[in-house]
Structures are given as C-alpha cells and as structure tokens.
Automatic annotation (TrEMBL), chain A:
Organism of origin: Neokomagataea tanensis NBRC 106556
Stored Pfam families: DUF934
Protein name: Oxidoreductase
InterPro entries: UCP030820
Domain of life: Bacteria
TrEMBL record, chain B:
Pfam families linked: NIR_SIR, NIR_SIR_ferr
Domain Nitrite/sulphite reductase 4Fe-4S: 125-278, 417-553
Record-given protein name: Nitrite/sulfite reductase
Heme keyword on record: yes
Keyword list, A-Z: 4Fe-4S, Heme, Iron, Iron-sulfur, Metal-binding, Oxidoreductase
InterPro entries, per database record: NIR_SIR_4Fe-4S (IPR051329), NiRdtase/SiRdtase_haem-b_fer (IPR005117), Nit/Sulf_reduc_fer-like_dom_sf (IPR036136), NO2/SO3_Rdtase_4Fe4S_dom (IPR006067), NO2/SO3_Rdtase_4Fe4S_sf (IPR045854)
Species, as recorded: Neokomagataea tanensis NBRC 106556
Residues of the Nitrite/Sulfite reductase ferredoxin-like domain: 58-116, 345-402
Chain segments annotated as transmembrane: none
Length: 144, 557
C-alpha cells in the first residue's frame, strides 16, 4: 500500500488500528478504524489517547466519512491523524483535506499525480472549512 | 461588459474558478476515455457537471442560478443550440436549460463557450446541493417582502464544491422566495426557504424541510419559523449534516431527506439539528451583514424611470386591441414600481412542446430583453420566461416582438400552460410519452377565449413515477403508467405547489392517451357547470368534492 499525504502532516506509523467495538473492550489502543456508519461521538472517552483515526470508505459515493472527519475536528477537536482507506477517488482529494483528513491509503503502485493535481487545482473556495484558510475580503470566499 | 441586472457579477476570481472547474472536467473525460476511471466512477462526476446519458444521446443541463439571465447568456444558449444541438433548447422545471443532443467529446468546448458568459453546468445533477431556485418575479413583484436573489447567490456560492456535501445520499434541492405568495414551491423542496424582514431590519428565514415529489410525494414541514440571517448558513449546514450522516443509502428510493424527516418526525429532526448547532463553531459559519452587503454590491438595480402617463398609454393600447388586452390579462403581473409591469412569455404555444425554444427565438428574446427589459430575462419553474421590468408604455411593442416569433400565447396560468417532463421521447425510465398528450391537450383547448373562461388551471404531466413533471402538484396531474405494454395515464386532482401545498389525489383507474384527453375535457365541462361565480377550478373542487369530476371522467368509458 501507498500512503499519500493530503497536507503538511506526515502519515505516522501506528499499531494496527482496532475496531470501535474492540476499542471499547481494550481501551488502551492508540488507533481505531471507523466504518462509515459508526458514530464519531463514541470516541469521546478515548480521545486523549488516540493518535490515529482511520475512516473506511466502502465506496467513494458514500459521503458519510466527510461528516465523520469534520465532526472529529470541529466537535471533538481531535488533533491526531485522520486517515482514509477504502474506495476513494483523486477527485475527492480536496474535499477530504478540507474536512480534516490528513492521509489516504492507496493500493500499492497507485499513480499519485492525479491526487497532487487535484490538491493544486483551486485557488479559492466558497465556504469555510476546518482548515485555517485565509479569508478573502469580507469573508464569503477563502484563499487556498 | 455591461453590468447585468438582477444577477451577481463575476470577478476574475470567479472566472478563474470556473476555468479550473472546466479543466477538471476535461481531465475527468480524458481519464474515462483512457480507462483510469470506470463508468461507475465517472458517472457521478459527470452528473455533477450536468451531463446525463439519455435514451439517444447525452443531455447537458446548464445552470441558471435563481433563474436570472442576461442577454449575452441567452445568445450563448442560441449558439450552443445551433452548433452542438439540433437548433433548440429546453427550459426545465428548475429554471435551468437542457440541450438534448450533445456529444461527450463536445462538452468541454460547450462548457468553455458558456464560461465566456459566466455560465456553467455545476451541480445541476448528482447527489449534491443542486442549483438553487428562486422567485421569477424577484425584485419586481408588488407582493414581495424581500428580494431573495442576494441570499440565493450566497447559497449558490456556499454550496459550490462543498467539501462535506458533495456525496450526499441523494440529490438535494433548495428553493428560496421572499414573497408570501410562494412561487417557488418551497414546500416541495428538500429545503424551502421563505425570507421576510425581521424586527431588527435584517432578514429572517422560515425554513421548511423534507418536501418532495417523486415516488413518495410529501409536503415539507416547517423546521423553523424565523432563523436570523447570521445563522442561515449554520442552520443549513446542520440540517444537511444530519441528513448526510443518517439519510438512507441502501435504497435510492428511500434516500431523500423527506424519508428521514418522516422516519424521525420533524420534532426529532429539529432536536438533531439543535444538537449539531450546539457543537458547531458558530462563528465560522456566521453570515455577517458585511458579507451580505458585499454580494449585494455585485448586483445592479434597474433605474426604474417610466414617463408620466405610461399607464395611460397601456390602457389606451389595451382598449384598441383585444388580442393584446387578453395577453395582458393572462401574461402580466403587477410591478412594485409605478409605470412598470412584469411580462411572462408562454413557452407553451398550442400544440408545441412545453418549454422548448429554438435558437432563433432565443436570439429574439435576448434582443427584446435589451430593448425593453434592461437586458435581463428570467426562467420560471413552470417552464416559461419572464421580462422583469417593462415600462407600461413599451409593453405593446414587446408583445408585438413576441408575437413575431410565435411566443405570443396568452395562456400563462391557464389550462394551456402545461408542465410536462421529456417522457418516453427522450427518457429511458419513462412508461409513457408526456409530450404528445401535452400537445393534444394544448390543441384541444387551443381556443384562447375558452382558456380564459376556464381560468386558473394547472396541468402537470410526468412519464413515470419519478415525477419530473410534478404531476402531484398539478391541479390536474397525469402520470404515465404501463399497462401490458400500452401507455396509460393516471389522473390526480387537487394538487398545488403554493403556500397551501397539497399532493393531488388519484381520481380512478388509468386511461389510454386519447381517452385521457377526452376525460379531461369532460372534467373541465363539469367544472364550468358546477362553478359558482368566479370560482377557480380548485375552489370548485374544494366545495363540491371529487365525486362529480370522477363521474364526468369515467362517464363513457
Ligand atoms: C430525460 C431525462 C431524465 C431522467 C432520466 C430523469 C430522471 C429522474 C429521476 C430518476 C428522478 C427521481 C429522483 C428521486 O426521486 O430522487 C427525477 C426527479 C426529478 N426530475 Fe428528472 N429526469 C429527466 C429529465 C428531467 C427534466 C427535463 C426535468 C425538468 C423539466 C426534470 C425534473 C425533475 C424534477 C424537478 C425532479 C424532482 C422531483 C422531486 O422533487 O422529487 N427531469 N428525475
Ligand atoms: S418523470 Fe419519468 S419519464 Fe419523465 S423525465 Fe422523469 S424519469 Fe423520465
């Protein structure tokens, strides 16, 4: 597998992530993997220990992971790494990044150029995200 | 470029963005062609750019944000129709325009041509927040409380490539109006917004959620009575976040927000929204008065100066020409400014395809808008076109110009003003052809005197249960059904999309096409017998119930 970094944070090395159910059993784990139907709020008791949250995309059309990432950052103020694995497209790179995702797991040998291109594509966005983006003039747009 | 009236003026940042978006789409087409993207992966991506695969060809749906166009944009549509289509376009029930005969390879070029006039096809399809619709009389109607276009533009921008809400369970449609007379079908949208002035001078918003037509027609319910302007974006984000997390993804027929709202109940949905709002960093979502002002500043207001006596000129011309007078009665609406009037152009000439316009007609409409309406044109959710600000002393000349290109039908709001989906002539999902029956009905009631005598009567036709023709919201609705391989139509009565939104009730067994036309003729006759005074069809239906109409409809069958 290839780890692709969406932003400045370098993907770290962690022990194999446990499922949400296992996390409840063995509260010591430092990395967890959430399925797209899992509630992010369930991580609350473990937050200060967790270093990595992996969000699984069963298929790229299932957009729940975007909300999960955003809730992790915005509601739970999670400062660790958020990683996405499963079926995602390079066309989603910027959306993932702006919802707070740091890295993406790609199949070994994947071409990362479309991912890189997508991250550089836009110089403006029309809504605030969880990133500290620079607000343009009065604030309806942000610079990228 | 001259300043456009009634629409947000792009700056270089907006144009660069659009160019980058087209570049992205061109690359997606290339990746599809070289196999890097599977058809399954490509489909949602092309849909987000308005490109559908229909029965015979690709269809490109171009966004007309809040239904406002300038003359150059209308001419660009004519250009696309001539160069890339078969010489015509089709206005839709969401104020957009579609071109039905497009080649995949041509789409990047078409998108560039449109971008030259600040137009795009973004989010006219796909499971994202769709192009936001608004009141076709915005900024002009005498009955308006707040001009909704500024907030419609704010919503357009906010929803553009929204990082969190581009892969929702299903498509998401928002409409916004600023008049108590709902002309946007707010209660049949995923989110319907009605703006009005608040106590502090800022705008407040009544928000409906969970309305929709389709397989499961549901009237939207009020989620909030008055959301302050500052919290508009936060509230919408919270509503859609709940939907994105909890809307069903296992069955596309149960994936719209209306199903979730029904499942939870509106009170529980509100609690969920409140729970989101309580955790959100509200300051980040704040829509400040400065932000609103900066968007508003990009709109130009028309300089509404009518000469003294404009109204008298119009009165005189009406008195002299009965045909013109009838058109004025059916096809105009009161303007807020003295000496002005709003003119509606019917795209439903008897026997023609509802909503279709030829390239020549588009060019002529552009020219007329420049001469008589500040270079501005609006599209309506009933598939007509509006000139928002016309001087009363110039209305007659405008009408003459319309008659010249076959657009003088005096039937707005009348039985000939039919809304129909593309149906089996274009659509792979259809059970029946919607267009021929619309043409037959148009021809049956072609007599304009009869139409006027019948009065307000809205017919809506859908070729299948997906309800693109909004049949549930028609005073008379027709739904195409398949009976052992034959095209039949099921009738509903009593639907309406306004502030008293109602889903029409099924009248009885479906009938074949010609029998349906006859049955509607008998229903109308019966109404004319039953009606008391100036009652509208809906009022008579309410008073006497459906029994007489059922009897009339199935009389001889
Ligand atoms: C010919 C190609 C078309 C196809 C294959 C198509 C397909 C569909 C489908 C499957 C739905 C149901 C979606 C759902 O229930 O979530 C739908 C809804 C809708 N379509 Fe179309 N459509 C087509 C053309 C049009 C056109 C030309 C118009 C406008 C005149 C239109 C307007 C609508 C509207 C307004 C709805 C939403 C109804 C609602 O509120 O749920 N469609 N369409
Ligand atoms: S209502 Fe049915 S037949 Fe008509 S356009 Fe929609 S999907 Fe096609």
């Amino acid at each position: 597998m290839t780890l692709f970094n969406l932003g400045a944070r370098e993907a770290g090395h962690y022990a194999e992530p446990v499922t949400l159910a296992d996390l409840v059993e063995q509260g010591e784990a430092r990395s967890v993997v959430l399925e797209s139907g899992d509630e992010v709020a369930a991580l609350k008791p473990y937050l200060n220990r967790l270093e990595l949250v992996v969000l699984r995309f069963p298929i790229f059309r299932d957009g729940r992971g975007f909300t999960q990432a955003r809730e992790l950052r915005e509601y739970l103020h999670f400062g660790g790494e958020i990683r996405v694995e499963g079926h995602v497209l390079p066309d989603q790179a910027d959306f993932l990044k702006r919802c707070g995702v740091d890295s993406v797991v790609l199949p070994e040998g994947s071409d990362v150029r479309p991912w890189e291109r997508q991250l550089k594509r836009y110089s403006v966005s029309f809504q605030r995200s969880v990133l500290p983006e620079k607000v343009l003039d009065v604030g309806t747009r942000v610079a990228r | 470029m001259t300043t456009a009236i009634g629409q947000y003026q792009y700056d270089q940042v907006d144009r660069d963005f659009l160019a980058a978006r087209i570049e992205e789409f061109s690359e997606q087409v290339a990746r599809r062609l070289d196999g890097a993207l599977t058809e399954d992966e490509f489909k949602p991506l092309r849909l987000m750019n308005g490109l559908y695969l229909q029965l015979h060809a690709y269809m490109l749906r171009v966004a007309v944000p809040y239904g406002t166009l300038n003359a150059a944009q209308v001419r660009a549509f004519a250009d696309v129709a001539r160069r890339y289509d078969r010489g015509y376009g089709h206005f839709t029930t969401r104020q957009n325009i579609q071109f039905n005969w497009i080649r995949l390879e041509d789409t990047p070029d078409i998108l560039r041509l449109l971008a030259d006039v600040d137009m795009h096809a973004l989010q006219t399809s796909g499971n994202c927040i769709r192009n936001v619709t608004s009141d076709e009389f915005a900024g002009a109607a005498a009955d308006e409380l707040v001009d909704p276009r500024v907030h419609a533009e704010i919503l357009r921008q906010w929803s553009t490539l929204h990082p969190e809400f581009t892969f929702l369970p299903r498509k998401f449609k928002i409409a916004i109006s600023g008049s108590p007379n709902d002309r946007v079908a707010a209660r049949f949208h995923d989110i319907g917004v009605i703006a009005r002035p608040g106590d502090d001078g800022r705008v407040v918003f009544q928000i409906f959620v969970g309305g929709g037509l389709g397989r499961t027609p549901i009237v939207g319910q009020e989620l909030y009575d008055s959301v302050p302007e500052e919290r508009l974006l936060a509230t919408l984000e919270a509503i859609i976040r709940v939907y994105n997390a909890h809307g069903r993804r296992d069955n596309i027929y149960k994936a719209r927000i209306k199903i979730l709202v029904q499942a939870l109940g509106v009170a529980a949905y509100r609690n969920e929204v409140e729970a989101e709002l309580a955790q959100m960093d509200i300051a980040r979502y704040r829509l400040s008065p400065e932000m609103v002002a900066s968007i508003e500043a990009r709109f130009a207001a028309p300089d509404l100066q009518a000469p003294e006596g404009a109204a008298a000129v119009l009165a005189e011309q009406r008195a002299q020409n009965m045909v013109f007078d009838r058109w004025v009665r059916s096809n105009t609406h009161a303007h807020r400014s003295e000496g002005h009037i709003i003119a509606v152009v019917s795209l439903k000439p008897p026997g023609e395809i509802p909503g279709d316009v030829t390239a020549d007609q588009l060019d002529r409409l552009a020219g007329l808008s420049e001469r008589f309406a500040y270079g501005e044109l609006r599209t309506t959710h009933l598939q007509n076109v509006v000139f928002g600000h016309v001087r009363q002393d110039q209305l007659y000349d405008l009408w003459r110009g319309l008659v010249d290109v076959g657009l003088g039908a005096p039937n707005v709001g009348l039985i000939g003003d039919i809304v129909a989906c593309p149906g089996l002539d274009y659509c792979a999902l259809a059970n029946a052809r919607s267009i021929p029956i619309a043409q037959k009905l148009g021809a049956r009631f072609a007599d304009m005197t009869l139409q006027e005598q019948i009065g307000a009567l809205q017919i809506n036709i859908s070729g299948c249960i997906n309800a693109c023709g909004h049949h549930h919201a028609g005073h008379i609705g027709l739904l195409g059904v398949d009976k052992r391989g034959e095209e039949f139509f099921q009738m509903t009565l009593g639907g309406r999309a306004d502030d008293q939104a109602t889903v029409g009730k099924i009248l009885g067994p479906a009938l074949p096409e010609d029998d349906t036309v006859d049955a509607i003729a008998r229903i109308v006759d019966r109404y004319l017998q039953e009606r008391s005074g100036q009652e509208s069809f809906l009022e008579t239906l309410k008073r006497v119930g459906e029994a007489p109409f059922k009897e009339a409809a199935y009389d001889t069958v």
